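testing teh design pipeline on a random one, pls ignore if ur not involved
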């Protein structure tokens, strides 16, 4: 580990530095290759050296006299090379780096030579001596520490993250060397502490150097993206600038034409005898008599026509330089507009003629033929002309550029009017074929994975099946589209350059000579390709190829927008359906309905044919079918699955993640029964997970064939399953709440019966016994009195029963403060029992309690007063209301006979009053305490927390 881990780290850094150096000549990487290589050599050397010692039978090092100095020299040289390379790169000081490397490597060589000379002699004289006990070890480590310190001081002048990282790495190397020297100084007394720490500093410094590469790659990537964005903006600005330049050039040409016309008018006013002007004029000037022969020619005209002046004088002009039209056909003289100038005296001018040179070549001219009069009679004409080859070329380029811009604008306007993908592709292909005058065309789009091109539309005379049959050929529409997408550039293929074996049948049948392919690009990535074919060679020029590239970007952006629109529409439909299903799930608390809706709606969400839901039976540890949809008559009750029967169920329980199976027939995890009964071709398995436990499992079944489940589909159905799981949890909680409410109601009715009917029946029993005694003793009147009392008690019991029934049906009463409730109860108790009650209110104001708390407090107080009257026989009762911070206190105190609270309830008779009082207090989070002593009265203390927020 001591040498193996650094060797791996040095090796990784060496590979990265070497790779960068091979791609580009980098001075820093060139030095780092040496530094990292020396570091790797040192670690490998020591790894092999230590392995040899361990494998040696005696454990002795036979190469100790050489290995120790070499190991120290390699480590010192590696660190010096690394430090020197970063000094050059960070400080940008080649001279300082070179001096540092010269001094560092020189010191390394001197130290190595000195120790190689002295260490073997010291070892021979003292075989037990260790290298660290000699001055040679001190020489290496002291020298290296000073060199590292020099590099640290030099780097401290700079700022930046690179300087900080390299500085920390060098300080780690320095700390390692310092600890080694400290270890030597203490004669290795603390080596078990110092050595691990020092080695750790040495190892930690290496990955810090690797972090430099990681950070630089991140910065380079960010800079490249910024440069790409800037270049894209530059291209847009350049297009605008070129358009403005062409517009300006066009305006300049118009101005020049106007100026030339003014020059013609000026020339007509000049004397034909002004030879100086004729000689110096830049335009060609010819004088023609009525017979059409030259009477004078200026040098510019002779030079443009390829003759000498002498050769032209006396020669017929039309036959010499205007004998043919631009297409090479003969030009009759009577049709010549210049002829009209010297025969009929009509001024003619224009730029639609070509003149012919002596060598047989022609050039376009701007000309003016002005009749010349002598003594009032027509004597001929003066022809002034100019070679406008450059102007015609510029006008052609401007017209072509305007055509390209118009085509782009028309295409952009058309594409922006629709988000239908088929309409976009058809419209774009038709416009491109018309603009570039091509015969055939195909549009391919990449599939969602971005791997395969699929044909979308095509134009041509051959049927589609022939195009698809030849789609794998290199020289084909598909082949050139693949090249365009791979290279992210437009491709032009000349069919004549390929052998017959490489040509597709479609190319041969269509008779195509040129193939052109361009990528459809959006946001810097290809979304497809456009391939065109023409039946003529060299059918596309560089300017048209640039236009096609720009059109490819426009179509790519339109395709991306259409796909985004389609995807947004699909997501809207899915979210709408998911919302509707969620509304239903939250509107029912029946688990069976929820399971049925899960099975039905999940198939609609993903367009599957069937679905099955299993409910997890935790006791039996198996999944039981609960609902199916589209299962070809397979009932849910017939389905069972145990974890041991299918790896799918085991994985769903263990990992709680969805499982996608693209081909159910080839996946061994799918039970064969599923393939037979469900005709399963593809499966999507999802766990329905509750609070810490599985509720069930949903299996989506596609019966049409293998299916690749998209991540967005899985995410959608997982969202649906999570909502269904919440609905199932709510249904289970609702059922539990119903059970709890029924139980609580039963407890309340039992308490009501105890407080009312049970106590009344107890009194009736006592009075019946008393009446029996009176009858037996012959005291008839007293027996009748007891029977009268019993009749009153029966009436009171009947009222209590009616009151209890009414309480189950009555509407809530208006809220009252606790003081009013207690005051009413005290007054009723005093009237019924005749025992005076003193009410002490120490509350700061009216205390309003929730209905559940108010009812329980009243029942506890009523029980306490009844117990005082029946069992304590008091002369005075006191009821005290108090509040201690967030706790309310009710105290019922009497001066009756009291009792011993420590006596068990079973020994005091069949009475449940105290237990019911404590149960009521517990319902509101409170407690009841009894403080009583025989002969000294009783205190019943009820305390419960107040909800201060309410």
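output:
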């Amino acid at each position: 580990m001591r040498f193996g881990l650094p060797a791996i780290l040095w090796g990784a850094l060496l590979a990265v530095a070497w790779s960068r150096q091979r791609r580009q000549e980098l001075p820093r990487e060139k030095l780092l290759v040496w530094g990292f290589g020396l570091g790797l050599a040192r670690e490998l050397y020591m790894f092999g050296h230590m392995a040899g010692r361990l494998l040696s039978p005696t454990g002795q090092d036979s190469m100790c006299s050489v290995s120790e100095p070499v190991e120290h020299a390699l480590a010192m040289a590696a660190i010096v090379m690394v430090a020197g390379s970063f000094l050059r790169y960070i400080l940008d000081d080649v001279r300082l780096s070179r001096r540092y490397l010269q001094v560092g490597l020189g010191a390394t060589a001197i130290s190595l030579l000195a120790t190689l000379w002295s260490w073997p002699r010291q070892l021979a004289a003292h075989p037990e001596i260790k290298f660290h006990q000699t001055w040679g070890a001190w020489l290496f480590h002291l020298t290296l520490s000073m060199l590292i310190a020099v590099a640290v001081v030099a780097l401290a002048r700079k700022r930046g993250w690179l300087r900080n990282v390299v500085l920390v790495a060098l300080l780690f190397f320095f700390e390692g060397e310092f600890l080694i020297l400290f270890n030597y100084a203490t004669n290795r007394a603390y080596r078990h502490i110092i050595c691990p720490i020092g080695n750790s500093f040495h190892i930690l410094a290496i990955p810090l150097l690797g972090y430099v590469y990681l950070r630089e790659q991140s910065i380079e990537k960010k800079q490249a993206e910024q440069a790409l964005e800037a270049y894209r903006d530059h291209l847009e600005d350049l297009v605008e600038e070129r358009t403005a330049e062409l517009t300006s050039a066009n305006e300049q040409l118009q101005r020049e034409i106007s100026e030339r016309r003014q020059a013609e008018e000026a020339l007509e006013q000049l004397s034909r005898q002004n030879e100086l002007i004729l000689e110096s004029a830049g335009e060609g000037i010819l004088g023609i008599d009525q017979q059409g022969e030259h009477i004078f020619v200026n040098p510019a005209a002779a030079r443009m026509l390829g003759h000498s002046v002498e050769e032209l004088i006396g020669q017929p002009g039309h036959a010499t330089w205007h004998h043919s039209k631009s297409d090479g056909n003969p030009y009759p003289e009577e049709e010549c507009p210049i002829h009209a100038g010297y025969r009929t005296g009509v001024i003619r001018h224009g730029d639609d003629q070509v003149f012919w040179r002596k060598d047989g070549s022609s050039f376009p001219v701007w000309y003016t033929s002005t009749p010349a009069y002598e003594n009032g009679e027509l004597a001929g004409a003066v022809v002034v002309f100019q070679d406008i080859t450059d102007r015609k070329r510029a006008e052609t380029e401007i017209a072509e550029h305007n055509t390209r811009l118009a085509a782009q604008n028309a295409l952009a306007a058309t594409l922006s009017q629709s988000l239908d993908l088929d309409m976009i592709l058809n419209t774009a292909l038709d416009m491109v074929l018309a603009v570039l005058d091509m015969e055939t065309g195909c549009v391919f789009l990449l599939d969602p994975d971005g791997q395969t091109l699929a044909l979308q539309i095509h134009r041509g005379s051959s049927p589609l099946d022939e195009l698809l049959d030849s789609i794998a050929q290199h020289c084909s529409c598909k082949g050139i589209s693949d090249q365009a997408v791979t290279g992210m550039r437009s491709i032009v293929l000349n069919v004549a350059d390929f052998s017959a074996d490489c040509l597709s049948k479609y190319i041969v049948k269509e008779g195509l000579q040129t193939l052109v392919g361009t990528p459809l690009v959006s946001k810097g990535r290809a979304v497809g390709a456009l391939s065109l074919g023409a039946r003529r060679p060299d059918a596309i020029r560089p300017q048209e190829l640039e236009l096609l590239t720009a059109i490819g970007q426009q179509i790519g952006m339109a395709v991306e927008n259409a796909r985004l629109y389609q995807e947004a529409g699909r997501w809207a439909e899915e979210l709408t359906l998911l919302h509707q299903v969620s509304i239903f799930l939250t509107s029912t608390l029946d688990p069976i309905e929820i399971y049925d809706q899960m099975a039905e709606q999940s198939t609609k969400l993903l367009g599957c044919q069937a679905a099955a839901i299993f409910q997890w039976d935790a006791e039996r540890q198996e999944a039981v079918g609960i609902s199916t949809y589209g299962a070809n008559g397979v009932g849910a009750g017939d389905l069972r699955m145990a974890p041991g029967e299918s790896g799918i169920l085991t994985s769903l329980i263990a990992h709680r993640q969805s499982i996608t199976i693209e081909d159910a027939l080839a996946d061994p995890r799918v039970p064969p029964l599923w393939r037979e009964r469900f005709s399963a071709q593809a499966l999507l398995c999802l766990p329905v997970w509750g609070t810490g436990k599985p509720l069930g499992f949903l299996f989506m079944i596609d019966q049409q064939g293998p299916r690749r489940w998209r991540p967005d589909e899985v995410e959608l159905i997982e969202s649906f399953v999570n909502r269904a799981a919440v609905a199932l949890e709510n249904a289970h909680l609702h059922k539990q709440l119903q059970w709890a409410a029924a139980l609580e109601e039963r407890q309340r009715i039992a308490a009501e019966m105890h407080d009312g009917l049970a106590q009344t029946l107890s009194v009736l029993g006592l009075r019946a016994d008393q009446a029996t005694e009176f009858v037996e003793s012959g005291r008839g009147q007293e027996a009748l009195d007891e029977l009268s009392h019993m009749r009153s008690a029966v009436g009171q019991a009947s009222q209590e029963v009616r009151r209890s029934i009414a309480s189950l049906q009555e509407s809530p009463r208006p809220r009252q403060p606790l003081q009013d409730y207690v005051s009413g109860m005290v007054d009723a108790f005093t009237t019924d029992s005749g025992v005076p009650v003193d009410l002490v209110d120490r509350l700061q104001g009216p205390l309003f309690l929730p209905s559940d708390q108010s009812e329980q407090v009243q029942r506890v107080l009523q029980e306490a007063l009844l117990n005082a009257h029946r069992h304590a026989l008091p002369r005075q009762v006191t009821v005290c209301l108090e509040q201690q911070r967030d706790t309310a206190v009710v105290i019922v105190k009497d001066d009756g006979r009291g009792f011993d609270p420590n006596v068990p309830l079973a020994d005091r008779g069949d009475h449940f009053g105290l237990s019911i009082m404590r149960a009521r207090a517990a319902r509101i989070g409170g407690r009841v305490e009894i403080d009583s002593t025989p002969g000294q009265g009783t205190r019943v203390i009820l305390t419960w927390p107040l909800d201060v927020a309410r």
